[in-house]
């Protein structure tokens, strides 16, 4: 789990925690805190996108072909469905497609009560030396 923060140091800065990780699913969590909010005490959309991108990037990294050196997000689409005003946001990233060039990941973000707060689809480019 420490590899998560080493792979993506921003996760440490933002307070994103890796809960579980395997090739079929990555789970990450971001606790609500006032410094992560926008007006009205709502967890900032950028913080939620960073959570989803981090979980999706970790998911893609677990699926890299043997000759790959890493991955990078080349496209991300987010639908925000519910505000998160307390508790935590939990992201579950699952692969939709794991190719030699592109890995597509879908991430659901849920609030502390398990209600869907955002849905993210992202494409990760497979990098090679």
Main sheet, how many strands, which sense, barrel? 6 strands, antiparallel
What is the number of domains?
1
Question: What is the CATH topology assignment?
Answer: Thiol Ester Dehydrase, Chain A
Mean pLDDT: 96
Shape: globular
Relevant CATH superfamily: Hotdog Thioesterase
List the helices and strands and how they pair.
Blueprint: H1 2-7, H2 10-14, E1 16-22, E2 25-31, H3 45-61, E3 70-80, E4 88-98, E5 102-110, E6 116-127
Antiparallel strand pairs: 1-2, 2-4, 3-6, 4-5, 5-6
Could you describe the 3D structure shown?
With 129 residues, the chain is α+β, with helices and mostly antiparallel strands. It has a single domain (2-127), classed as Roll (Thiol Ester Dehydrase, Chain A). The chain contains three helices and six strands. The protein has helices at residues 2-7, 10-14, 45-61; strands spanning 16-22, 25-31, 70-80, 88-98, 102-110, 116-127. It has a six-stranded antiparallel β-sheet with strand order 1-2-4-5-6-3. The longest helix is centred in the middle third of the chain and has 17 residues, at 45-61. The radius of gyration is 14 Å and the shape is globular. It starts with a helix and ends with a strand. The mean pLDDT is 96.
């Amino acid at each position: 789990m420490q590899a998560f923060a080493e792979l993506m140091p921003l996760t440490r800065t933002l307070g994103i925690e890796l809960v579980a990780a395997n090739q079929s699913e990555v789970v990450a969590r971001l606790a609500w805190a006032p410094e992560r909010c926008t007006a009205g005490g709502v967890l900032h959309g950028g913080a939620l996108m960073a959570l989803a991108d981090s979980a999706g990037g970790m998911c893609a990294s677990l699926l890299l072909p043997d000759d790959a050196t890493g991955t990078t997000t080349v496209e991300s689409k987010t639908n925000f469905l519910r505000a998160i005003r307390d508790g935590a946001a939990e992201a579950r990233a699952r692969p939709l497609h794991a190719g030699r060039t592109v890995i597509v990941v879908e991430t659901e973000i849920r609030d502390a009560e398990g209600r869907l707060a955002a849905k993210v689809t992202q494409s990760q480019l497979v990098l090679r030396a």
